[in-house]
Amino acid sequence: MHRAYKFLLRPTVRQEQALGEMLRDHCSLYNGALQERRDAYRHVSKTGIKYGDQSAQLKDIRAFDLERQGRWSFSSQQATLRRLDRAMQAFFRRVKAGEKPGYPRFRGVNWFDTVQFPKDGDGCRWDSTPHDPVTRVRLQGVGHIRVHQHRAVRGRVKTVGVKREGRQWYIVLACDEVPAEPLPATGTVTGIDMGVAHFLTTSQGEHIANPRHGKRNAAALANAQRTLKTFPRTKRDNRTARHRRAVEKVAQLHRKVKRQRADHAHKTALALVRTYDTIAHERLSIANMVRAPKPEPDPRNPGTFLPNGAAAKAGLNRSIHDAGWGVFLGILAHKAESAGRRLIPVDPRNTSRTCPACGHVSGQNRVTQEKFECVKCGHTANADQVGALNVAIRAGLVLPDVA
């Protein structure tokens, strides 16, 4: 199985400067390759330039600019070109599918924060020797950087990535051939229902509270963004020390919410994996769930629109994003695979409207957000628990209370 490890780097002042220069030069390479593709598409041929054409030019580019492009790893520069090629392929795929194209944009130096090394030992070297208490990673052009390794790395290191988050630097190791760590069987199964009022509810009736990290930090984030807006982009002082501190404050709050959300997802998923052998969940399409409603033109007044509940839907969308269902389900799948647990995704349609006792489906069954009462047989229960029970039923799990 595959696993990724993320460790904090502790570079010296000169190494931190070199890391910044590495990002700057890779960003310049990315933007130059994107400009070449745009010019070729507009003026030469509609087929454009492929990755192989641009990769063949790297040797000449490195020879021409030895002080900048020539000092970095050749394979990491190829990875940057592949990154652009994937973005272009995704653009053309969206165009053919009739979706919003989203043409790749030029990257500012502050918006290019990752450099990838496709193979350990080619331009980088993960050095974790058992007899050395200090772990280091060697990067071409930077040197040996100390790593705060807080856990053991299992498996074979395949790729190495360097990532900048604010003023901190991280190393990301992608490993394969990681041995599984199966947990002892518990003999229990469950279905889970994702929600907003509760983060999730199990078919046994256990509720996990929704921490609402984004909402709890909304006031501080609004103040930081309000301060940032006092620096207009059109003025010359938009790169002063005060502006940089304001930008860093906003980014710091976003990182805080991201870490809190991931920490809650890890702990919740680990608790489920340790408790249950088989877990059923809804196969959610979150991108469709948070899609804004289409405007409804008013036939009586051309140029105007009828109310379509967009404001209420926007609030629900914020709550869904704040809950982080996608992050949680991804973490749950990884932990279940590592622990040897079985994970079953099921169709989520009408799980909250179906009576688990008689199978009657009706939108009137759910009286309120919390209460479920079947209009046919009169079965009453907690609405979120009913959804979890229906998920378990669809997964084919045997549950005594619905047998």
- Widest beta sheet: strand line-up: 2-6-7-1-5-4-3
Query: Biggest sheet: strands, sense, closure?
Result: 7 strands, antiparallel
Shape: globular
What is the count of structural domains? Answer: 2
* Number of beta strands: 16
Query: How much of the polypeptide forms β-strand, as a percent range?
Result: 15-25%
Q: How does this structure look, described?
A:
The protein is of the alpha+beta class and 403 residues long. It folds into 2 domains: 174 residues, no CATH class; 176 residues, Nucleotidyltransferase, domain 5. 40% of the residues lie in helices and 20% in strands. It contains 11 helices and 16 strands. Strands 2-6-7-1-5-4-3 form a 7-stranded antiparallel beta sheet. It has a 5-stranded mixed beta sheet with strand order 10-9-8-11-14, with helices on both faces. Strands 12-13 form a two-stranded antiparallel sheet. α6 runs antiparallel to α7 and α7 crosses α10. The longest helix is centred in the middle third of the chain and has 35 residues. The protein is globular. The chain starts with a strand and ends in a 9-residue tail after the last helix. The mean pLDDT is 90.
